[in-house]
Write a structure and sequence with these properties.
Elements (H helix, E strand, L loop, with lengths): L10 E5 L4 H12 L3 E6 L6 H11 L5 E5 L5 H15 L4 E4 L14 H29 L3 E5 L14 H19 L4 E7 L5 H8 L4 H10 L9 H12 L10 E4 L11
Parallel strand pairs: 1-2, 1-4, 2-3, 4-5, 5-6, 6-7
Length: 263
């Protein structure tokens, strides 16, 4: 019999589920059998929200969408309450929502620093706390926090985003220590992934195609990652096969950090 990841009957809450990595994770969790609640900034009747729900329901699972600004504690609380009202439980939290805040250490303002820390760090902690009672009651409760390869190595100008992403690895450790054994907590740190955000990054160069090719050459895997590949990691980590995994962050970067970039 082939090895199968089976999340049947479990409910996953995925933030940032209407695009990019969050959307890929939501879809793969649904393919593994989970019902999926997602949130985003888009209105419920928007094309993005509709596409999210369609991607989940085509797998045969239930979908629920809640418009949420994760920077707002009140909106996070309302979202968690709505998900529990819809499904009666939360088994898996994937805290994925975030945004690049690339300012540089000298040019970053106090407001930009605080906004970055609120979105890219504090929102993950606040949401995890709200979900904790439901995850503890699950019997399979787990938190996945989306950080970045910028937590290991970065490039000039990525401050303060890289600072928040580094701090998330500490959040993963602290929550795992304090909430185990009832709740497992892991981090996922993607590298260059095929997303609209990466397309915008390449488009900022005079020759986007040349920059893309140069970037691919820095990856021993010989390619950029896909949202579905990150989603598959998420599904595995949410499964009972990964029951011994907690308190650590998994770097998924195509080997880029392993290669000295002057080689």
């Amino acid at each position: 019999m082939a090895l199968a990841i089976d999340l049947s009957g479990r409910v996953a809450l995925v933030t940032g589920a209407t695009s990019g990595i969050g959307a890929g994770i939501a879809h793969m969790l649904a393919k593994a059998g989970a019902h999926v609640a997602g949130c985003g900034m888009s209105e419920p009747g928007s094309p993005k929200a509709s596409a999210f729900k369609s991607a989940i329901t085509t797998t045969g699972q239930r979908a629920f969408y809640h418009q949420t600004n994760v920077e707002s504690p009140a909106e996070l609380e309302a979202m968690v309450a709505a998900v529990v009202a819809e499904f009666g439980r939360i088994d898996i939290l994937v805290s994925s929502a975030g945004r690049n805040v690339f300012k540089g250490a000298e040019n970053c303002s106090e407001a930009e620093w605080m906004g970055n820390m609120d979105l890219n760090l504090a929102s993950h902690w606040r949401l995890a706390k709200l979900c904790k009672p439901h995850l503890e009651a699950s019997g399979h409760g787990m938190v996945q926090i989306m950080t970045s390869n910028h937590a290991w190595a970065s490039i000039p100008g990525c401050f303060p985003y890289n600072v928040a992403k580094t701090a998330l690895t500490g959040l993963v450790r602290s929550l795992a220590i304090e909430w185990g054994p009832k709740v497992r907590v892991v981090g996922i740190a993607p590298g260059f992934i095929e997303t609209p955000g990466n397309d915008e990054w390449f488009a900022s160069f005079p020759d986007p195609s040349q920059e893309r090719d140069r970037t691919i050459r820095t990856h021993p895997a010989g390619k950029l990652g896909t949202c579905e590949e990150i989603g598959a990691w998420s599904a595995f980590l949410a499964s009972d096969y990964a029951a011994f995994a907690t308190g650590t962050t998994y770097l998924i970067d195509g080997g880029r950090l392993a290669l000295l970039q002057d080689s």
